[in-house]
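Forum: Protein Structure Q&A
Topic: Joint prediction for protein chains with partners

I've read a bunch of threads here and the consensus seems to be that you should model interacting components together rather than docking separate models afterwards. I'd like to see that in practice. Below is the full input, 755 residues plus whatever partners are listed. Could one of the regulars post the assembled result?
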Amino acid sequence: MMKFRTTLLSLALGAGLGWSAAQAQDDTIRIGALATLEGAFAVLGEDSMRGVELALRQHDYMAGGKKIELIKASSNASPDSAIQAARKLVEQDGVDILIGPLSGSEGLAVKDYAKDHPGVTFVNGTSAAQDTTLRDPAPNFFRFTTDGAQWQAGLGTYAFEEKGYERVITIAEDYSFPYTQVLGFMLEFCQAGGEVLDKFWVPIGNKDYSSIVASIPFDVDAIYVALGGADAVNFLSQYQQAGGFAPMIAGSITVDQTVLSTKGQRANYIVGTPSAGPIADSWDDPEWQAYVAAYKAAFPDAFPSPSLFNHGYYVSTLAVLESLDAVGGDLSDNHAALREHMATTTFETPTGPVRLDENRQAVADIFLTEVAEAEDGTLHNRVVKVIPQVDQALNLPRDEFLALGPVSRDNPDCAGLRR
Amino acid sequence: MSAALSSTRLEVPGWIRRLPWLALLALLLVYPLLATPFWTVQIGAQTLFMGVIALSLMFLAGYGGMVSLAQMTVAGVAGYMSAIFGVASADLGLGWPWWLSLPLSLLIAVAFAALVGWISSRTEGIHTIMITLAIAVAFFYFARQNYAIFNGFNGFAGLEPPALFGVDWRAPLPFYYLSLGVAAFGYGLVWYLSRATFGLGIQAIRDNPRRMRALGFNVTLHRVMAHATAGLLAALGGLLLVWFNGRISPGTVGVDPVINILVIAVLGGLLHPIGPFLGALLFVLLQNFAIDLVAPERFRLVIGGVFLLIVLCSPDGIIGLWRHYRHRLLPSRREW
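Posted by a regular:
Agreed with the consensus. Here's the joint model:
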């Protein structure tokens, strides 16, 4: 046992000292995948990695005539861990392209890190904080997924006009991505005439929602919930146990497959919940159906339908691989040809066309959905409407959108958004 | 005592006994010239400053018998203060010059550590662990929810060491040597204190506080001063930690990092100041390379498994293992 450890240690030391970074051979391209494989978002991270693997499998792990080597790294949704993992991928494993991270605040940290490493191309995973590309973007950071505000396009208007909800409260986690989601919802909802009575912010990984459930006013028409992963499951079960009956408007990851397929979900409460996001489980588009079928065939033990995280990483990896094919694997001159191609091409994805704007931020279709129950009892999101080609300013004039200021707990304010 | 026992025991000259230490020192000095920047900073320097923070715990637990889980919190306080008083991105800090903000950060962290010591001075054993853990968790939640001073979830970014003598201390080689200097200072301080009156007093208080009180020692003051000394070490480690990451956020002082320091100290062994550094080396290697050994979804199992293995087989950690095998390997029976 002592010997095992000594051997392990000396192997690691010897291997590291004698091995300098970036020794990739000419016929291999190294891609690093960074997702949250620890903590509250671990399940989301696993599906993200499946997205990368699915795209690579469909390309036989080849692109631009070269072999693709995939190296995985893990973080726990904190910026520190994301930087540590990114540093290992870039400096120790010598990756040429880094796909990730998953979570909003990690994305902001990785963007800053990317500025110090111009020789590596950074492609976003699913991190959806606005400021990653809206303000002070990095020239080598490409985001093929839409941000949290874009994901909510159409939801605020639908909630006010079609569903008739006029007074809501919001419950979301206390960090950059949920702030962005709330902005996306409130922008349309408040401008349509709705009122947000109160905003509740909880720490990530919060287990006890009793104080929030107790504080929800009786006369709300609906509650807007933008929690993710384990937090969403915990809140929903505690809210239902407390006898809560206000209908829900869901943020993009609150009724994602990672939550809907949890055992014990009370279907009668959650069916009919409107949401909006980059995917819709039961869209009848043939490209989307082919993607779902491929996911089910490749990962029979995973979710009944790919999650938003799987989709985000899949689309990002797809864009990277297609661009590598287009430039014949040419990574010279700090990936100039590759980056040029990624910035100027419209990619066909299972959810429609995706192109990048001048900040290398995706412009894509958004799906307005409602939760429905299938015949076999599983829950999924059915499409109500497809909102085409939403840009980062939510189709407002860009300077007006920028004038709203960076999102925070207090910004935006409903009164300030109304004309 | 040993001289009277046997005349056939091998007498090892002093300089040969010191040879391994000199070899280690030489290796540490030339290491960055052999290793890549990643190995120099993410493995080498990180081992050194994490070792310093764990050393503060070792000083309190090994010599003082007080297992304080608030050491990472003290390190975090120093880091946060350096960001609040110094220069941070997005114009968040007060922007004071380094010769004001850094000593002030260390002072506040030491004062905080002394406060923790004073609060926990009446407790023993498990109760010290509980109360220091409570303080650590309270600080984490406070930092996460307070936006006026601590900037909540986002924390501070753009934290850099001051460019003293025109050197960029965050570059791999300077940062490594800076960490090595701080580690050597910490090691020397603990080694010296363990033999000085103060350290001997602390160890005596660990063994029998009542007798020490009867002898006229101010036990509470000794404990508070021990916490303050450990606090200085943790604060120095904390500054290096925030310079390494370039940022500080509540995640830096969360429950996971707090427990990690305990894991590092126990892995290495609480018997000798070299222990925390050995533990830190093993921990940093595992944290970085376990994901390459097993499936990415299971790599945390390796870290936990190694910890479990060492604690089960050798409660004194790596040092315990070394001592156990040492007397079988080397002829001299003199205690090291």
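Residues 37-63 of chain B form the longest helix (27 residues).
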